[in-house]
Each structure stands twice: as C-alpha cells, then as structure tokens.
Amino acid sequence: MRAVVTAGGTGGHIYPALAIIKKIKEEEPNSEFLYIGTHNRMEKDIVPKYKIRYIPLEVTGFKRKFTLDNIKSLTNFLKARRDCKKIISEFNPDVVIGCGGYVSAPVIWAASKLGKKTFIHEQNSVVGLANKYLSKYADKIGVSFASTLDAFPKEKVVLTGNPCSEKALSLPKVELDTLGLSKDKKTVLIVMGSLGSRSVNDKIMSFIEAFRNKDYQVLFITGNDYYEKVKTRILPSNVVIKPFINDLSAVMKSVDLIVSRSGASTISEITALALPPIFIPSPFVTNNHQYKNAMDLVEKNAGYLIEEDKLTKNSLLNLIDKLFNDEKKYNEIKKNVSSFAIKNSSSLIYENLKEMIMNDKRFF
Questions:
Q1: What's the pLDDT score for residue 7?
Q2: Has residue 23 got a pLDDT over 90?
Q3: Which of 248, 251, 231 is nearest to 239 (CA)?
Q4: Average pLDDT for residues 124-145, to the nearest whole number?
Q5: Can you give the CATH number for the domain in which 176 is found?
Q6: Do 6 and 74 belong to one domain?
Q7: What is the pLDDT of residues 293-317, one digit of tens each?
Q8: Within 13 A of 133's CA, how many CA atoms are on the CB side?
Q9: Over pLDDT 90: what percentage of the chain?
C-alpha cells in the first residue's frame, strides 16, 4: 500500500496516525508512506524518528472569531492546497489518511480533488474544525465514540475506535518493582499527559503528604520540566515520582486506578485495558472536548470526573477511597469501562482502507 498520512498539532492526532501506519506495515511490510505535517509543531520532531518520509507545510489554524491573523491563515491554506496537489500527484498514493489538526485540511482537500481515496479519523467526542470541514471531501470517516456517529453523513461514517487502543494491548506489561514500587499493593497512577500540568501538579504536591497513611501506593508522573522542581522533595514511602515514562500504557497494565486527563488517546487506552479512571479534564482545549470525552464515560457509570478548579485533597482522596474500599463499585466501574473498548481499532481501520482501495474503479 502507498499512503499519504497527515495529522498535526498534538499527540492526540499524531499518535493515532502512527498507530495506523504501524498496522499497515504489519499487514503489508512493503508499504510506502509519506507524512505531511506542519513546519513548526511537534510532529516535525516525532515522525522522522520513525524513519517515515516527512514533508512540512507552512499552515496555521483559523481563529473562531475574525482576526487579521485569519488573513494570513487563509493565504497559507490556499498555498498549501496548491503544494499538496503537486506532492500527492508525484507520490501517487493508493489512499490519503487524515487524523486531524488543521494541517490535514489542505492535504485531504487536494487528495479529493485529485480523485484519490480519502479516509479521516475523528478521535474526540466533539468533532474538530478540520474534520468538520473535510467531511464533505472524505470517502470514509472513522470515529472513536458511538456518540459521534450522528455528526457525519451516515453513508460515510464507521465506528472504529481509536487505534491507540490496539497498541496499548500489544505492549508487554511493565512490572511495578522496576519503578521502585511494591508488586503487592494497590496502585494509583496520576498523570496529566506527556508534558504534565503545572496547575494540577502544584495541587497534588500541596497535599502529597496525605497519601502517607494510605494502604495503597501512588505513581505520580509530573512531566520533565516540573520534575526538576520536585525531584529533591522528601516524599511518603508509598509515593514514587517520575518525570516521564515511554509507552505509559505498558505501566497502566500494572496499576489499579488512573487519575488523568481525558484526551481521546488516553481514553482509548483506559477502555482497552479496563482501568477505572478519575478524570481531570483540561479546561484549556478547544470546545472543552476533554470534558465531553470524559462525560461519555461518566454518564454510563464508567468513571468519575473532577473539574480542575474543584480539585482538592478531599475531592481526590475521597474518590480513591470510595473505589478501593468498595469492591463491588470498583468491579462495576471496571466492567462499564470495558464496555467502551474497541480493541481491534487499527485492524478495523486497515480493513476499511483495503476495502476502499479494492473498490476503487481504477483497480479494475
């Protein structure tokens, strides 16, 4: 398979795109890929490490309210569309895949105009601006949440889940003793994304001593920058702080409870691993989509939610105690979390891509 892949801006878009590439490579080792991303966002550093050919575009997002910056964004967008037509024509892919972020808009648009098969994936329960625009140009649309199916044309949309879920299941489990923790105690993982959250970290550290007399242990991932601030702090013996852990889902397999943000990729890993969650959604994301992602689970009794401005020692510790002290409630949450899982998401997406390519009249 020859595929152009595009996604950018955040890991929530980039890592699902990489998971799809990984699945295609597993099924068709001779596949060739071209990744089109931005010239100044995190994908420009992440993607080349996977030895994937990378072409940057100078594109910027549109503001939801009119500003002069939108004039520059429009100029960049129109130029990017022209550039993408040339890039895609030269690469001549079987399919073009978009996983969100504003960089995907000119790529999928150009592919559609060239008659290439196009697939877009929406990770969140709230549809992103780029995917909303691209829904008319995409041949097929994969969504992570059943609640999002009605947001797209019925004849195009399919529930695939998030491809990060399949990756989480494939990773070997990391044993807790390798992280300085006991293998015999219940364990809470606290993590606010790969970079951490200074505001949440400050709150957690303000009552870190409250964990000292608990009969469970805590693994607190702070992010690299914040770790420098607290690495010399004397901690309770049942608390371990780490700056960052690669392939965190391998650690998630060993813990009993997670306190986390509610980005789409995180939720896909949580549901695949049936890990009871306490969500603290980021209030700083577009359309408050993390809150809405979390509420999809909370409303089905598949987790708890604490809004960031309501995070206190009591609000967090009371919920942890509620889960650990009530085995029936814990198992109920675990079962309900599992009901959201789509464990073969990457495979479903691959099957849809193959079907699209095989049905393309150019192949007959």
A1: 96
A2: yes
A3: 231
A4: 94
A5: 3.40.50.2000
A6: yes
A7: 999 999 999 999 999 999 999 999 9
A8: 16
A9: 88
The pTM of this model reads 0.88
Please tell me the total count of domains within the chain.
2
Range of the domain at 333: 169-338
Q: Are 241 and 230 in contact (CB under 8 A)?
A: yes
pLDDT digits (tens, 9 = 90+) for 55-80: 999 987 766 666 767 777 788 889 99
Give the other-Cβ count within 10 Å of 304's Cβ.
21
Q: Both tokens of residue 348? A: 């479903």
The token duo for 310 is 């309501």
Cα–Cα distance list, 34 to 109, 137, 138, 338 (Å): 16, 20, 18, 35
Residue 259's φ and ψ, nearest 5 degrees, are -115, 115
Q: CA 276 to CA 282: how far, in whole Å?
A: 19
Sheet holding 32-38, edge to edge: 53-57, 32-38, 2-6, 95-98, 117-122, 140-143, 157-159
Span 239-257, pLDDT tens digits: 999 999 988 999 999 999 9
Question: Is 8 found in the same domain as 153?
Answer: yes
Q: To the nearest whole number, what is the mean pLDDT of the chain?
A: 94
The token pair at 111 is 């592919």
For residue 353, give the nearest of 124, 24, 76 by alpha carbon.
24
What pLDDT is attached to residue 286? 81
Give the residue carrying structure tokens 């409303």: 299
User: Encoding tokens for residue 247?
Assistant: 């392939």
Q: In 3D, which of 53, 72, 74, 57 has the Cα closest to residue 8?
A: 57
Domain check: are 148 and 198 in the same one?
A: no
